[in-house]
């Protein structure tokens, strides 16, 4: 599958990106099939060849979420934005969620064993 995405070039601290078409399995800094434009985040300037991008899309290429959102922001095309990143969950958070999941059945058992009671009593059982 082909993908249209950003390829970082430039020195450390001076990022500059090319808009390229490449195979999705290739490394982002690897060989590209075609150069379709550039993005300078320091000057906030996006330059792309919209006709060539549309031609590649018609051939089945996908646009990366980041590039899609950039093109929407710069009003190059009218498409909905896509979530381009995901919050990373730390190992500690995963362990805490697993511990809560193990405790949930015990809490339900306490409530069921207690029978019908006032909501205050149920809240106390949950807190315990």
TrEMBL record:
Keyword list, A-Z: Ribonucleoprotein, Ribosomal protein
Listed InterPro entries: Ribosomal_bS16, Ribosomal_bS16_dom_sf
Residue ranges of the TM segments: none
Pfam families referenced in this protein's UniProt entry, alphabetically: Ribosomal_S16
GO cellular component entries: cytoplasm; small ribosomal subunit
UniProt GO molecular function: structural constituent of ribosome
Single biological process term from Gene Ontology: translation
Protein family membership: Belongs to the bacterial ribosomal protein bS16 family.
HAMAP family registered for this protein in UniProt: Ribosomal_bS16
PANTHER family: 30S RIBOSOMAL PROTEIN S16, SMALL RIBOSOMAL SUBUNIT PROTEIN BS16M
Protein name listed in UniProt: Small ribosomal subunit protein bS16
Taxonomic path: Bacteria, Candidatus Yanofskyibacteriota
Gene (UniProt): rpsP
């Amino acid at each position: 599958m082909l993908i249209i995405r950003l390829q970082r070039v430039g020195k450390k601290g001076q990022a500059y990106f090319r808009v390229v078409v490449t195979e999705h399995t290739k490394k982002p800094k690897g060989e590209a099939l075609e150069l379709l434009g550039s993005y300078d985040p320091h000057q906030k300037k996006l330059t792309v060849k919209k006709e060539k991008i549309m031609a590649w899309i018609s051939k089945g290429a996908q646009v990366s979420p980041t590039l899609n959102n950039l093109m929407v922001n710069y009003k190059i095309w009218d498409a909905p934005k896509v979530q381009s990143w995901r919050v990373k969950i730390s190992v500690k958070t995963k362990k805490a969620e697993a511990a809560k999941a193990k405790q949930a059945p015990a809490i339900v058992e306490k409530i069921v064993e207690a029978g019908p009671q006032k909501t205050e009593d149920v809240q106390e059982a949950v807190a315990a």
